[in-house]
Design brief:
With 196 residues, the protein is α/β, with parallel strands linked by helices. It has helices spanning 13-22, 34-44, 62-68, 80-89, 127-130, 150-159, 188-195; strands at residues 51-54, 72-77, 94-98, 106-110, 115-119, 133-138, 161-169. One of its GO terms (molecular function) is thiopurine S-methyltransferase activity.
Amino acid sequence: SDVGSQKERVVTEEEWLQKWEMGNIGFHKEQGHPLLQKYLHVLLNGRSGLRIFFPLCGKAVEMKWLADMGHSVVGVEVSEQALKEFFAEHSLPYCEEPVPGISGAKKLQSTSGNISLYCCSIYDLSSSIVGKFDGVWDRGALVAVNPCDRQRYVSLMITLMEKNSSYLLVTVSYDPNKHKGPPFYVPESEIKSLFG
């Protein structure tokens, strides 16, 4: 299938930061995502106390929802504003610390300790920094990653997954010749070849 003119498209970190600054965040869902509620049983697979990763998390309300269920949530996001808004909107106290090994990165952690949000590029993370995860909720990450970086993104995600990890992925289907993205169109065949 033709991915149109999207293959070469690149959205810079500055552009993402600008979206947050301008409040141009139509991708944020105030009520949480209905597909996570519908497929939560697939993500949890009867398990409790999981470590769940939110790549490019923004200020996703589901992070608090899952933490309240007893899971440990880790997110990564380039916009510090997004992360601070998350804690403010949920009235969650947090502390901030630098991340050893990543210049300029910060970790914002709820004082309860069950939500840790990294402010840096996702590509700066590794399992030696964040550990491995039992579940991943990829609601707007793969479709936001620049098409030229998809392989790099998926390779990283695979290194962050425990053996019995569940990975919930939401994509969007549309004619890529009519919309330049993001969200980018990722055909099912490409998802299969990326994740194996």
